[in-house]
Design goal:
The protein is an alpha+beta fold. The protein has 3 helices and 5 strands. Strand 1 and strand 2 (26-30) form a beta hairpin.
């Protein structure tokens, strides 16, 4: 863990987040500056600077896929985007989000969280 990392603080519940998925290795939560309804960050719980440093990346991408498929169902669209850059926050993260043409309020965190969680079940 990096004590100065905002995503590590989210993992450790020091900072609140709208969590839509969690297992022993990964966490997915709604982005606070969403590009579209349901915009989600998928991160490893252990601190890695880059996505490419995460061991067993297939497990990581399986979680990102799970979120993308839930977003397709929750927001009734096939057009789900993903983005990996890593310069915004120095902790590995994958953006997963529906296209901007999806109806709804991107800032309706509670409603969007509920839709994704229901679609994951």
């Amino acid at each position: 863990m990096d004590t100065n990392c905002i995503f590590c603080k989210i993992v450790n519940k020091e900072i609140p987040a709208e969590v839509v998925y969690e297992d022993d290795k990964f966490l997915a939560f709604l982005d606070i500056r969403p590009h579209s309804p349901g915009h989600t960050q998928v991160i490893p719980k252990q601190h890695y600077r880059w996505v490419w440093d995460v061991p067993n990346t297939h497990e990581y991408f399986d979680v990102a896929k799970k979120i993308a498929l839930a977003q397709r169902k929750a927001f009734n669209t096939d057009f789900i985007l993903s983005r990996i850059v890593g310069d915004e926050v120095p902790h590995a993260h994958i953006w997963v989000f529906p296209n901007r043409e999806v109806e709804g309020d991107p800032k309706d965190f509670e409603g969007n969280k509920k839709k994704i969680i229901e679609a994951l079940q």
